[in-house]
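Practice problem: Enoyl-CoA hydratase
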Amino acid sequence: MIRTGLRGPIQVITLDRPDRRNAVDGPMAQALAEAAHTAERDDQVRVIVLAGAGGTFCAGNDLKAMAAGDFPIPTVDGPPPMRVTRTPAAKPVIAAIEGYCFGGGFELALWADLRVASTTAEFGALNLAHGLPCLDAGTVRLPRLVGQGRALDILLTARRVSADQALAYGLITQLVDPGQALEQALTLAEAVARLPLEALNTARRSVLDQWALPEDEAARNEARLALRL
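Answer key — structure tokens:
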């Protein structure tokens, strides 16, 4: 249900359950976490690309599996349903998005640093329409990415956001033709992978750290990280 493949310095992790539109159940979430953590520990890997099989990124958590108790009972300190989303990855992550990107799949895409989507992509927290709350940090990352007003519009209406609107909102990085999201994400990943790794990760870490800090302390944190080089 999770496929992995190495393309030079790029680890491709593919959600491969097309008969369920790549909806994630408990074992699949665990396999996703294991694949991501393996890539983080592999010195050969510089960038991680997330993709979905069968023309769909991820329709969210598998509601039938959730009803059957397939997922651990959520807690504040326990792992979230998608397993990997509670903390940022140790390396840059790019999501290649075709078709549905809903619910937990939407939150997984928000976990990525960059998002490349085709014109077939649709986004949204459709889980809220079923009375299911966000547990994979979507309500944290979405407003930081698109602003509070737009985030609340997406969340409070639980509506579908088109690829064109996602591009206008800054939700996605690039918009491509149908079927081209993965190839374009790999091209982007190759460009990232060619950069000096330590300086790249220092800049990324500073961006991610600064949200919890006052501006002056965020500037000092940037300096501390940079001077470690």
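Discussion: The chain has a mean pLDDT of 96. Students who identified this feature from the tokens alone can consider the problem solved.
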